Every structure is written in structure tokens, then in C-alpha cells.
Amino acid sequence: MSNLERIAKLSGFSKATVSRVLNHSPHVSQETRATILQIMKELDYVPNRNAISLSTGQTLQIGMITSSINEIMLPFLNGFVEVAEQHGFQTIIYTTNDDTSKERQAFEDLRQKRVDALVIISCVTSAKEVESYCKYGPIVSWQRMDNPAIGSVAMDQFKGYTLALDHLIPKGHTRIANALGRTYSINTRSRQQAYEQAMQKYNLPVLRQFYYPSTYTILDGERVMRAMLQQSEALPSAILCSNDHVAAGVLCEARRQHLRVPGDLAIVGFDDTELSHTLGITTIRNPIAAQAQNAFHLLSGPLRGIDMPQAELCFELIERTTT
Amino acid sequence: MSNLERIAKLSGFSKATVSRVLNHSPHVSQETRATILQIMKELDYVPNRNAISLSTGQTLQIGMITSSINEIMLPFLNGFVEVAEQHGFQTIIYTTNDDTSKERQAFEDLRQKRVDALVIISCVTSAKEVESYCKYGPIVSWQRMDNPAIGSVAMDQFKGYTLALDHLIPKGHTRIANALGRTYSINTRSRQQAYEQAMQKYNLPVLRQFYYPSTYTILDGERVMRAMLQQSEALPSAILCSNDHVAAGVLCEARRQHLRVPGDLAIVGFDDTELSHTLGITTIRNPIAAQAQNAFHLLSGPLRGIDMPQAELCFELIERTTT
DNA sequence: TTGAAAGCGTTACCAT
DNA sequence: ATGGTAACGCTTTCAA
Asked: What GO molecular function terms would the record report (chains A, B) (predicted)?
């Protein structure tokens, strides 16, 4: 293994100059640079990252904390990895299964300077404890945290949901069901509020008996559809789903039951994933990848001393064939 | 930020002794240890990982190369992360989108000692080029590589598929369809061979017109079911699926078409994921997490000087309600 | 433009 | 059981 010193010896220059070549310093003559680069190539030289990190105090690695990896957060993950990479940062993933001790491992890695920053997708550690790690490096969260000290790039779900309702109600839908996500999450609460407020505003019934909590997958959607049919009450004329997967399940099951969509039932998804595109499901475009970019931008200031603006994000209704 | 030297000064001992405490060396007296630990706690001391890595030449990080993250490889990913963690290693994921330059980044990180080893889930870099990086650290692959220099923990799909056939044929199934995966992968070829050999052995027809390539998801499965019904020929009496998701799709669509399962059509999945359990699909148990463990075990020798045995793995038929 | 030398924070060898 | 000190491989300041 050849190192800086070896290159320096062979080239006849000092380690400092070789280092300058490595870091593209302008204060090196063309010839010198050429000579040194030549020797590096011959020796198949590679700088040692650990030495660089030790010297600079930066690892160029960012940790990402998530309970598990699933399709919902994949656009965020991939979006973040991509923008980070563009700026020379690598992403290292901590899957925690919502285990606090595993989460602590990630926070400790921030202290130990194994990562320069942390981005939280989901985490069960208390906001207060998370905050105690802020002094070791910047931390940003996707989910909204109770603690204002921790930056967040979450979007207010209220607006997105309202968009869907303002689309459905003018079309004459009065009885609207909801397939929801995690019961106690801030997101779910916002959506529920949006629904209840809209219904009150238009003087329409709030169908609590058609709330279906904890729906995440295609199969959940199919289950919801069957459950709706088994209600003693008449079928709602529309359903808002927690995400496109659930909407896909509802759609498939509805067709299986020979219901016409949107004739008998209108369906609105959420997120605008590829699946909704494929199946032609009306949905709310949720700029998840852009949120991930914002997360990196938020980190950029403390991390690199470069302030990057937060993109102004908004939901958007994508009308397709299910409404 | 306090460091070893600071602790040494304050405790009155040398850096060497403090280091011994850190590394649980037995050659430190109880009192000394206690004193030093006490001071560490007071100063909220954390050892710097970069310094450790530079000094030891180990990062305790293992890179994982994959085209993208999806549900199929998730058990492998999670299985590997878990076993690695148990032995003090962290996993860092390189998603490459099958882009060779991104893959090269991962290999370069092995050279630069950012990771101690590499495990390949999927990669498009030529086996020859991959081999050229072997000298920088151990590399192991999940998929079978052409190059014998690179260890692999792939299992021979032939056996698993044969298991399914030996289950179906004695039950009287003579016309069997196949929903397959990547057309040119070694896995798919093995499965196809297993099918064709079994059919020849029992003197049954090889139904090439009921080969459905490139099936991966629930929706693909539903598509396959519809396609089978649209064939001019009579429906096969059974179908082997590339994975449980596809099987789930076939099952759902079959029911939607009012077919009896297994009466009109028997269905066999692959992998024994939670989904097959939930839906009661007969499937072939594929010990993916155990393969991931084997991958780590394979790395353990060159990585830690500790030889860990390869678990002898085998497929297993899990009979449920679809056959 | 270039060089010398002092860090960066550990580990590990050789003494004692 | 403990200490002194040379690595580890790079960056960065200060001089020249």
C-alpha cells in the first residue's frame, strides 16, 4: 500500500505538495502536478479515507434512521441518497425496528464522528433525548417532531387531503369513507381533521363508521373494500385512501365485486406513485423525493457552511380515471 | 471534545493505560480502571472512530451493493444487517440502479478502506473487474457469479423447484404453468430446467405456451391469471410462481374469476414470505436470511480471522391451502 | 510555488 | 501493571 509519503519521496516533492495535488489546490505548477499524478497512477495510489476523516474531522457520511425499509419511504430514501451523493456525501442506513437501543447506536455514531449528520425517517426515541445529540452534529427529521430544536421537512397533510375533498365534493359526493394510516401519527390526525372540517363546511355527514385505520398495503385495501360492503349501511360514494397501494387494493377488490369505478365508488389515492399511474388512480401528488432534497438542504448549512434554500413544496391533485 | 490524552492527564495515568481500559485489557488493576472510567464519564468522553480506524486499519463497515431496494431482497438485507451487527459490523448500502460508475464507487471505497468488505446482491460490473478488487478486501455475492474467485451463497434453485413439482405431480397435476423471473438469470434457467426435466421424467407435456416471464409483483400475478384464461387452450391445473407476491396475485385474480383454488387451479409460491403465510399459499421455503448469514460467515475468515461454518441450507415445501 | 513540521486521536510495541 | 513513543496517513499553518 503506497501512501502520500511514498509518492512524495518518489516525485522529489514534499507531502504538502502532493496533498495539494490531491485537493486540487491552484498553488501547484502544471508540471509538478503532472509529475505527481503520473507517479500516483503508476503506483495505483489511493488516499486513505480514515486518515482524511481523522485529519479533517469530516466523514462525508450521513446516517439515516428508519424503523424498517418499505415501499412508502423508498422514494425518500432514494431521493436523499441521490442528492447527498451529488454533494459528495454517502448515506448509511440504520434500520432499528423501533428499538431504542439500536436508535441510540445511530446517535452514538454521530458523537463518535462516524457520521457527520443524521436524518430521521422514523424514530421512537424521545424528542428530548434526540435533542441532546444535536450538539454533536445536525439532525433533521422527515416526520414532524414535537421538539422545535429538530428541523423537519414534513408537509402539512391537511392541505393535501383538503385538495382531494375539494375535488370530490363538487362532483356531488356526499358520503365519503377514509382508509387511514397510523392512528396516533400527526399525519393521520391532520388528514382526519381536514376531512371533518370539510364535511362540516359543506354540511355533510362525518362517517366515522367508515374510518378504516392502519391501512398500508394492497391487501389492506382489499380488506377495506370487503368491510365496506359488509356494513349494514349503504356504500359510501367515495373513499380517500392513506396511500396508492391501499387505493389499488380497493380498486381491484371493487372490480372483483362488479362495482363500477367511479360510478358506484370513486377512489382517491395518495402519493402519486408509479402504481397509481399504472392503474389510472386519481391521487394526490406528494413530492416525497423533493422533501428528501429539502432534508439535505437543511443539513447543508451546518454541515458544509453552504446555505441551500428550502424548496416550496405543495400537493397537487392528479385526476385520473377513478373519480 | 475530550480525547485520550486529556483523560490520561487528568487521571494521572498514561494514554496506553487509558487505551487498555477502553479495550478491556486484563492488564489493568481494578482501581485504575475504576478511576479512569469515572473520569471518562465525567467528561462525557467518546473515542473517535476515525482515529481507531486509522490506527487499526479496520472500519468495521461492510458495503452492500444492490441495484435497488425492493421487497424481494429485503430479507437478505435485513438478515445480513442483523448478523453483521451482532459481530460489531455496520452495513452501508450502495444503491446503484445498475449503473457501473456507481458500482465502481463501492469498489473504490473498498480500496480506500472506507469499508472492510463487500457483499453483492446484484451488480452489472463484469466478474473479471470485480475480481480485480478482491485484493483490497473480501467480496462475497448472493447471486451466482461466473467467476469462481468470488464467493457466493446462492442456492441451487433446481432443488427447490423440483420439490414443488414432486408435490404437484403425485397429486395428479399433469398440465403445469410457470410464472418466471428474469429471463436470463441463472436462477430462472435452473427452475426452467427443473420443470422440463420433471415433466420429461413423468412423461408429461412441457407447456411452453404457459411460460410467463418477468413476473415479480402482485399485479404481475393478476396479469398472468388473466392471460391464462385468455389462452385458447384449456387452463392448466396448476401454476408455479416466481415468488409469493406473484402467487398472491394469481390467487386473488383466480378467486375474482370464480375459480376454485385448488380445485380448478393449484398455486405454489416461492420464498415463504409473510404474505404466503397470511393468504395460506403453499410455497417453497427459501432460507434467504440464512443465506445472508452465510454471506457474513464467508466474510468472517478473511475479515476477522475467525472461520465460521456455512450452514447447510435446503428448500422445504410448506403445504397450505392452495394445493 | 514549495517545504517543514505540527497536528488529528487512537493503537501497539518495547520497556520497566 | 504501567509508561514512553513510534506508528497510522493525511491536512494545514507558517515560512521561505
From this structure: DNA-binding transcription factor activity; transcription cis-regulatory region binding
